[in-house]
């Protein structure tokens, strides 16, 4: 049996589809309010902050995917993420299950250096420090040979369905509502974006590849890195209409953050929008040369055509 912890988000939903299609129909979806993705899914209600509930949810699993997310709230991240990671690690150790952790890039330096799996953690901001700490916790367990696990890391998302990301919120959601897309700080810096179905498809492949464990993997992205200016121009071409947009200056975002809690929570992420974001996924592509990465145009067309 393969189990997804934190099963309501877009990554988990796509992951459940991929697992059922190619690997197994014995899938357990775990969250506080789990919803079936495939007809054969088993649903388990559990709070990952509770060690017993977490252990009970993992029981009987051969592979466990941790795809849980928390709201953009620094205090909540500091209070809950270390407990969640500890509970999941302990549950997998107890039941001798492999662990696949879906991770982000917050712990990386927010500079224009090329980011690889060996990039040294240098977090900017409290959320980055939390992510660095919980990832290090798992890496230490792997190094001590106490758990068989892997880290699957993804950069900024874009994608269909319930994809939650700055790019989706500020660009695609605004287009749907007939509003101008918004871009943070600059539109002339290269971005590395990952299409959410690709991230899930790659994670399912890695999780079911025995020799992929006890490593960190950058999930595959389109090598055609674009600036937001180029990205929105491509969106305009796909949508067959000119799409004007607004670049939000740092001073304006700082003012908005005084009155908007959500905007305040994103301030520590701003440095990554001032420089090129170069996320390298060549390790994955070399190991899985037949994996087809969705090109930006195809990804945008899927978003445009979804109902």
Features:
Rossmann fold, 17% strand
Structure description:
It is a single chain. The chain has 307 residues and is α/β, with parallel strands linked by helices. It has a domain at 2-155 and 196-221 and 279-293: Rossmann fold (3-Layer(aba) Sandwich). 42% of the residues lie in helices and 17% in strands. The chain has a 7-stranded parallel sheet with strand order 3-2-1-4-5-7-12, sandwiched between helices. Strands 6-15 form a two-stranded parallel ribbon. Strands 8-11 form a two-stranded parallel sheet. Strand 4, helix 3 and strand 5 form a beta-alpha-beta unit.
CATH architecture of one domain: 3-Layer(aba) Sandwich
Q: Helicity range of the residues?
A: 40-55%
Identify low-pLDDT runs.
none
Q: What's the name of the CATH homologous superfamily of one domain?
A: NAD(P)-binding Rossmann-like Domain
Please write out the topology.
Elements: E1 2-5, H1 10-22, E2 27-31, E3 42-45, H2 51-58, E4 63-66, H3 74-95, E5 98-103, E6 114-115, H4 126-143, E7 149-153, E8 156-158, H5 166-176, E9 182-184, E10 190-191, E11 193-195, H6 196-207, E12 216-218, E13 226-227, H7 228-239, E14 246-248, H8 250-259, H9 261-266, E15 278-279, H10 282-287, H11 296-305
Parallel strand pairs: 1-2, 1-4, 2-3, 4-5, 5-7, 6-15, 7-12, 8-11, 9-14
Antiparallel strand pairs: 10-13
Helix pairs in contact: 1-6, 2-3, 3-4, 7-11
In short:
With 307 residues, the protein is an alpha/beta fold. It is built from 11 helices and 15 strands.
